[in-house]
Amino acid sequence: MRDLLDEGKDVKILCVGRKGRDVLKREYAGKIVHTFEGLGRKRLDFGDALQVSQYILDMVERREFDVCTVLYNQFKSVIAQLPTSHQLVPFAVHAAEEKETGPKALYEFEPSEETILEALLPRNLSVQIYRALLDSAAGEQAARMTAMDNATRNAGEMINKLTLRYNRARQAYITKELIEIISGAEAVKR
Fold this sequence. Notes:
Layout (H helix, E strand, L loop, with lengths): L1 H5 L6 E4 L1 H11 L3 E5 L9 H16 L6 E10 L2 E10 L23 H77 L1
Parallel strand pairs: 1-2
Antiparallel strand pairs: 3-4
Helix pairs in contact: 3-4
């Protein structure tokens, strides 16, 4: 973000979630244009991604930006999430390698190519956002699971230490009582 601002670009931030907004608010409060809160609170579903993508599509129609990039944690494993950026708008088409051998097939589109793209590109945007939301949610759950596992392990270690301390104190008390009884019996004997 700093690099974009240093280049003189106008940056707008669309936050999904309260925590991300709170972190960005400290330094870039004026750049945050909207925050989606409560998405996936009960369960993350495709409707959450549709809300975000519709907001982005409305901004595209109003020509409020040139490039839209989503930043999220890509889930790799329970202990590894990779910070990732993925350009959503404009949609980048990676040209497939064409083989020079053989004739090329002719395709006829019905309805027209434009009509198909008008229907598919917004859905693709929604799917890309849904993927980012799922990856971030998986990473969050993995972090919670790891934290709970560490807390359980630490509690077990603490219980073992306290049990050992309690047993030593109880043994010392029993030993003290026995010494007092033996000393009293020796005193009575004499």
